[in-house]
Amino acid sequence: MTSQNKERYKQYHKFYLRDEKGQADRYRRQVRDYTKKFGSLLAESPRGSALDVGCANGMLAAFLKEQGFEQVVGVDLNAELIEQSKQNVEAEFLVADAGEFLKGGRQFDVIFLLNIVEHIERDQLVEFMTAVYQSLNAGGFAIVRTPNMNTLLAAAHLADDLTHCTGLTEQSFWQLAHAAGFTKIHFLNQFLMQNFKGKIKAILNWPIHKYLFALRGGTKTTIYYRNLYVQMGK
Asked: How far is 108 from 74, CA to CA, in rounded Å?
């Protein structure tokens, strides 16, 4: 990440700090959402160490603590959010650049990168993801969420945030993961992650995208959700 984008990213989660009212309720809702999305993925994972890259105010860390991880670490560029995280969750929180931290030699059983990859410049992506790979213990895995550029409103999703600089599709993400050394790459079934309203949207959304990509021809595309959710292991 360039120094200019680092400064922008430090302000990225400012909205978390504005709303003191309803903070506890938001925490509970978010932890429930994480449990629905990721609980089954962690069912057979060692409960040793977990890293949350771009931890914001610690909601994912709270979920990981509830899941029984002995050591939970969160890193973020925003010092205010790190201080808030320390107040909210009993875990290790550090103000740090993710790329630099990942090169520090620490190893983890699970690494979460939710809404992180899109903030990394394209020419730095392979180096960054290789550092993620090297920071995993044997048998460990990373979970990534990033905008899916194979959707109709992908350009708006990517352009809505000034700190976004890279967009990936199902195909280009697979190429990136392989280039970084990952051999186990699994795109998660997002339909199972949705609530009732989300499932209705997915049912309506799928045939539209399938028809348009059939007209386009060429590269096979199977994921038409707003985000890509990917589990990557050694």
From this structure: 12
Can you give the residue range of the structural domain that contains 141? 3-233
Contact 223, 150 (CB under 8 A): yes
Q: pTM here?
A: 0.88
For the chain, residues with pLDDT lower than 50 are 16
CATH number of the domain that residue 8 is part of? 3.40.50.150
Q: Give per-residue burial for 61-96: e unless 16+ CB within 10 Å, then b.
A: bbbbbebebeebbbbbbbebbbebbeebbebebeeb
**CA–CA dist 13, 20 (Å, integer):** 14
* Confidence at residue 31, expressed as pLDDT on a 0 to 100 scale: 84
What does the alpha-carbon distance between residue 64 and residue 163 come to, in Å, rounded to a whole number? Answer: 27
Number of domains in the chain: 1
Closest by Cα among 88, 71, 77 to 30: 88
- What per-residue confidence (pLDDT) applies to 16? 45
Instruction: Give the model's pLDDT for residue 42.
Output: 92
